[in-house]
Design a protein that fits this description.
- The chain has 248 residues and is of the alpha+beta class.
- 64% of the residues lie in helices and 10% in strands.
- The chain is built from eleven helices and five strands, in the order ααααββαβαααααββα.
- A five-stranded mixed β-sheet has the order 1-3-2-4-5, with helices on both faces.
- Helix 6 crosses helix 9 and helix 6 (137-153) packs across helix 10.
- The longest helix has 28 residues, at 47-74.
- It starts with a helix and ends with a helix.
Length: 248
Amino acid sequence: MYKALLTSIFLFAFSSMVIALDLNNLTNTDREVLQKEIRRYILENPDIIFEAADLVRKREAAIEILEDEELIKSNYEDIFYDNYSYVGGNLDGDITLVEFVDYKCSYCRKAAEIVRELLKEDDNIRFIVKEFPILGEASLTTSKFAIAVKNIGGSEKYKLAHEILLTLTAEPNEIYLRRIATELKLDPNELLKEMKSDAVLKEISRTAELAKKLQISGTPTFILGSQFLRGFVPLEMLLQVAQSERKK
């Protein structure tokens, strides 16, 4: 604690000295003395470098949190009430978890287990899925299929398709898609036709536009309340964030 106090005093004194000095008009002698004094202090107190770096990281993190909150506020309706994305969990929950997902993303597959556990442990969470296929043609095909299932079969059929597609290891060719459709007790021909519909393509396009506005470029990306959570997130962290959001 003494060292931290000493560092603060030095930085204050140094910054005051720099402000008082006209650095453009320093003599070579004055400049050399100043440089030696700074170097001496840093060598005697090397931890100051790490303290300064940590301070910068904290400031950057704080700025990023404020920027994220502003992004969420300015796109609130499109994030939480777009009237086309799947909505599950507790529809009347006091907090909403949004996930941008790609079925070919290995971390999305891993995160699916965490999301299931989260919704079991916390039954007051509303859950939204944003179809965000960014990993190639197979990703696009599976997202089209999932949305087609939702449009024709409703939320419950979509939920089942969503779980199946997150475990699909084979390429999503027509044979597999027809097999899944049959498993879901839906007409395969109707689903394959719906995959090409304007409604399906529009949903994918609108989600991509929203992701661009939110500066989302990877999956999974979560929005929980007013916070962005990028990448795979452990269950414990999701539970903690949910509780902290409820206290706001």
